[in-house]
Design brief:
The structure is a single chain. A hairpin with an 8-residue loop joins β9 and β10. α8 runs antiparallel to α11. The chain has one domain: Ribonuclease Z/Hydroxyacylglutathione hydrolase-like (Metallo-beta-lactamase, Chain A), CATH 3.60.15.10. With 302 residues, it is an alpha/beta fold. The chain binds zinc ion. Zinc ion binds next to loops.
Length: 302
């Protein structure tokens, strides 16, 4: 908690909180926040948050099983997840480079007892290098790669129609449906992904949310629509696990769990399950923060 307070204070002291133009919106966001989402509340309600300390300076995390069918093969500063299905593996995000794919993701799979030859589909949440940098490694091996059409653009275009991730599309891999939701804002075609995870015989629904809008009021308006759209899926799909590609920024509790999950005691509580109410409230909170940012941006532009 001390570290969180220190981060909060540091952010407050050096950056504009978005409450100048419309304090009511920030108060509405604050009312939707809780202890667990404080770091996200402060950051998303700050108009132009500074680059997060340590981003881009991570190392390989210890590969870990997070649920019976969800594994982490990422770095300490950016995630890569594997969903195990009855018909092979799906990878979400690919780290910085083909070398990361070869030296972190592939050995991670083997360490976790997963066969890299079973990799059937790779999703990149967006085109930025820390998420799509490893794409060429998998493309060269003939694995289906999926990004939104808008985000394929900066990578030279989609190789074929099967590679285009569309809003509302459900990819069935064996017994596992993976739902794609377009959540533009961070990039024009950023996607979030929803899929079932199981533990102790109980099925939960997880979302990996690509958030953090970059740009002016217009981009933020798209992001507000996108998170509201995702909120509808969180409600209708009863999502109760909320994950983020840069977990250190969004949820320090989840981040600490993921980084130590390899040594978790069997049967201990899984803090990644936050419940459907908290997941929906989180999405509503960041949407309110972005509305507050828009108010501040538009006031400054007058
Ligand atoms: Zn990015």
């Amino acid at each position: 908690m001390n570290r969180l307070l220190a981060v909060t204070c540091a952010l407050l002291s050096i950056q504009a909180f978005a409450q100048d133009a419309n304090p009511a919106l920030v108060e509405q966001a604050r009312a939707l926040s809780d202890e667990r989402s404080q770091a996200s509340f402060v950051r998303q309600c700050t108009v132009e948050p500074a680059r997060f300390p340590g981003l881009g300076e991570g190392v390989a995390a210890t590969p870990a099983k997070l649920f019976d069918n969800l594994y982490y093969v990422g770095r300490t500063d950016v995630g890569a997840w594997v969903i195990k299905t009855s018909d092979g593996l799906a990878l979400i995000d690919t780290l910085y480079t083909p070398e990361d794919a070869a030296n972190i993701i592939m050995p991670g799979l083997q360490q976790l007892g997963l066969d890299p030859a079973q990799l059937k589909v790779v999703f990149a949440t967006h085109f930025h290098g820390d998420h799509a940098g490893g794409v060429p490694f998998f493309r060269d091996r003939g694995v289906r790669i999926m990004l939104s059409e808008a985000d394929w653009g900066p990578l030279g275009g989609a190789p074929n129609a099967d590679s285009i991730a569309r809003d509302g599309q459900v990819i069935m891999l064996g017994d596992t449906p993976i739902t794609i939701v377009l959540t533009p804002g961070h990039t024009p075609g950023a996607i979030s992904l929803i899929f079932p995870v199981t533990e102790n015989g109980v099925t939960h629904k997880a979302v990996i949310m690509e958030l953090s809008p970059r740009g002016g009021a217009d981009v933020h308006k798209q992001a507000v629509e996108g998170i509201a759209h995702l909120g509808e899926f969180i409600a209708s799909e009863s999502v109760d696990v909320a994950l983020h590609p840069h977990e250190m920024i969004f949820d320090p509790v989840a981040r600490d769990f993921i980084m130590s999950a390899s040594s978790r005691t069997q049967g201990s509580e899984n803090p990644l399950v936050i419940g459907n109410e908290a997941a929906g409230r989180f999405a509503a909170m960041v949407g309110k923060c972005w509305e507050a940012r828009i108010a501040t941006m538009e006031a400054a532009a007058k």
